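This protein record is not my work; I was only asked to verify it. Take the sequence as given and treat only the tokens as open to question. I have pasted the whole thing underneath without changing anything:
***
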Amino acid sequence: MATVTTVGYGDIVPVSNLGRAVALVYMFFGISMISILLSVINNTFYRKRIEKAEIKEKEKQMEYLRQFIISKLSEIEKKQSECLELLGKKN
């Protein structure tokens, strides 16, 4: 078990069954602590990357909406000026 968990070279080993059981628990505890630490670090980087992508997507959507609103306002202003010209010709 010590070889699988890579905790040592075997120069000092527990002799009793209780000692071996305790060593086994410590080995798996160490592996699980490193796994949890690495998963937290990985999750943090992944979350930042996803948030950055979401912010870029929202910025694209906002720019599209801004351009759309500007184009619609331009159309409205053009129609308004055409209407005013028609009213000016009638008077």
Remarks:
- The mean pLDDT is 87.
- The chain has one domain: 2-90.
